[in-house]
Amino acid sequence: MMMYKIxxxxxxxxxxxxxxxxxxxxxxxxxxxxxxxxxxxxxxxxEPHIILLDIMLPFFNGFYWCSEIRKVSKVPxxxxxxxxxxxxxxxxxxxxxxxxxxxxxxxNVLTAKVGALIRRAYSLQGQVNVIEHNGAVLNLGDxxxxxxxxxxxxxxxxxxxxxxxxxxxxxxxxxxEIMQRLWxxxxxxxxxxxxxxxxxxxxxxxxxxxxxxxxxxKGLGYMVE
Length: 225
Prior knowledge:
This protein is 41% helix and 20% strand. By secondary structure, the chain is α/β, with parallel strands linked by helices. The protein folds into two domains: 5-125, Response regulator (Rossmann fold, 3-Layer(aba) Sandwich); 128-223, Arc Repressor Mutant, subunit A. It has a five-stranded parallel sheet with strand order 2-1-3-4-5, sandwiched between helices. The radius of gyration is 20 Å and the shape is elongated.
């Protein structure tokens, strides 16, 4: 299952940490920032699926940053603020916000709103037919990989490994998680079998010009960066 990344832009570090811990318990990859001068650059770098944005921030307020983020990204934004009068709510929506939560708030309400917005924003993801990363295009329809116009035929296990890694590009996937995905096939997969599968897949990728596409993180697992 895809892990959605939540970016928390809140200058009260206690509140930010509480939100991060709560959302992490629900299976989200929640991160909060501490640099409030270069927020747009951090959004571009982190590529979050949802942003939780406070209005009252150092240097520039949340309305300013929302308009700046909208110049580079359509990421869904939930405003979170104690300034919950109608004017601020209207302003938040007009600046490109998708929802508004008034402080103080119930953490379970926050989680429900995040989940609902993710379902609305990414409900079509299951219908996406390709995943692209660094020029390599994985076709989910015919289980092939295309790179620089060359089609690479994949086995069932090749495809499942690549799909999992490319869906989670930038995140380390443990060997256990990969084996769980492979167990969905009819084959019995143990640690040795995974090693053999991974070696074959890497050889196939290297021959197609994708040497080093899958990185090993010693003691942790594998990833595509």
